[in-house]
Structures are given as structure tokens and as C-alpha cells.
Amino acid sequence: MERKSTKHSSDKKKKAVSNIVFGAAVIILLIIAAIGFYLYATKPSVTSTVTSTVPTTVPTTVTSSTTVISTSTVPTTVTVNQTVTSTVTATQTVTQRVPVMYNLSAAFLNGQVITFNYTMDFSCNTSGITIFANESQQESVADGCEVGQGLPSSDLPSNAAPVYVIVPAFAGLSIFGVQKLGANAQGFPTFTYNGTTYTVLTQCGAADTPAACPDHMSLIYSPAFTAVEESLGIKNGVFGLPEGVLPTPAHDHIVTFSTTQSIPWYIVVVLVFNPNIFPNPLTGQCEQIVPSNVTNDTSLCLNSYANLQKALSTYDSAVLMANQNNPIWKTLLNGKAVDAIEVPSNMILYFSDPNVYPYPDAYYTYTSS
To answer: Are strands 161-167 and 263-272 parallel, antiparallel or unpaired?
Structure first.
């Protein structure tokens, strides 16, 4: 792929989301995450009208003037103050909007933000084979959910389709949602470049955090995690977990089609090392954070499958600049400047993905009473 070198001002600091917009975005994402953990759709939304009659006593002072003609034919004006008590009936109409509870998150489809509606819990298929046969303890703790080798087609449901789970790996260990590793309190990763720290908003925060998505696995085992831990001198795992077992990281989703029918989707993990192509979950747009040698360095914004395929073979100087202190990049890519890599898994999710914008209207349906 041919490159053109472009010069970017190194002292120009841009934030992907302004403070005001960022605050609003976090609130929206957290509200949606909270809604997602309730039950599936339970009843139609209701718009109810309440009419109330309120008797009200209103003291009113009425001033009237009366002209009296006396026998002396001298006009005399007499002013009389009279207090009148009246009852006024007021009718007040109140419209109540009741949300329908769904297990929802979002995804990208051809540059658009669409809705995921989860219909059942995840599954991690270990029937017939054991992907990592010598890691029985890890497999048990992680409910059999493993990343590093895909399932053969014979072990997939006949109607299964791929969902690409894109992880902001450029944010380092903060992707796992642990504040001691750099995540914020809501479960979003953070990324620091040139003295500025950015919060990386995602459609799903890390597992077991306020921003986590419903029907997702809490823990995952991967030999890649083991390699990263060992590169840091960790030999017995972290947080009381077996070596190589970590929380499901924060992530976005990419799909290749939309359907209103729930089907199984097998997960393909994508580790993204270029912050300039990681999209905003609310808009699907990207913004440059790190200087790049690529002309129009956000052109491969990961809001579509087509851009994802290009990113897997694109080398960008932004990757080198963004990951100098990132143990994930150093361990897995050994200094390569590729934008992203794919990693297969044995994990399956179940959802429909209607082509409806999810923030926030897809979470509320209104009907007239």
C-alpha cells in the first residue's frame, strides 16, 4: 500500500471528545448499560394520561363604585369593597413514559451505529475438542471461554455468523477494567499520549463494571494473556485468577449485515493498536490523536468490515508512537506497526441486530393509551 508522508503538528493536542460531550456520552452509555442488565422485554411501553380535578378556594376582592343622588341633588359617590370567594376547577394532564426493558448494546454496520438485542446468555463451545488441553484450571474458571484458536465449522451452529469484537489494545492493560491498571471507575480504558490522558469510550465496558454489556462472559482465558503476564514477571496470574485468565476487555462490535431475528454469532477478537482508527461508540467517527505517516489517517475508521479488512494489513507510524509503553503490543507484535490483528475464539453470542440507532430511542418504545 502506497503511503504519503504528512506532517502533523506535534504540539497540537486534540481530544476525541470535548469535556462536555464526553460527560454526556458517559452518562448515556452508563444508563444503557444499566438498562441492559434488567430482564428482556417484559411489556409494551405505556403512555398514560392522568386527569385530576383540584378544587381551589380563591379569595377575590372586587371594588365597585355606586353613584347615589341625594335629595339635595348633590351627586355622591360611594365606594364599596366586596370580597367574593369562588371555587376554580383545574384539569391537569400528565403523560408518563414507561421504558421497555431490553438487553441491548450497539455495533457498527457499514459506517452506521445499529442496535444489538441480546436474547440469551453466551456460550463457549468446548464440545468435541479442548482448545488448550493443558489448561484445565483456566478453562474451568473461565467457563470454557478461550481466545487463540477458532472452532471448526462442524462445531458452529448452522446459521452462525461472525461478529468482530474490536478491542482498543493501544490502551494497554486498562482494557480489562481494573482501576489499578489505568481504567476509570465506569470500566472504560484510558490512553495517555504526549502528556494528555484520554478516556476511550466503548460500546461495552470491561466485564463486571458499570459499563459492561449484558449476556457477556466475565472471564476469558488466552495463552496471549499468559505471555503478556510473563513478560511483566507475573508467573501465577493476577487478582487471584489462574495465569492467563483475565476479565473480558472493553470493546466495540462490527457486523456485516442486519437482521431482526436472533441468531448465533461467533466472536472474532480484533486487537486495535492505532488510536486514530478507533471509533466513537455514539457517532462511529474517528479523530486523530497521534501523528501518522498515512494521508488521511482516520480513513480506516473501524466502523465497517471493509475498513477492518484494510486495517489488518496497514502499517502506520502512529502505532509505533502510541504503543511505546504498551506490554500487549510489545509482547504480541514485537514492535510491528500494523494497525490491528485478528484472534479467533470459541465464544458465541445470541442477538438480533436491527438497523436502528440505539442511543437512546431504541431503549424506549412509546404507545398511546
So the answer is: parallel
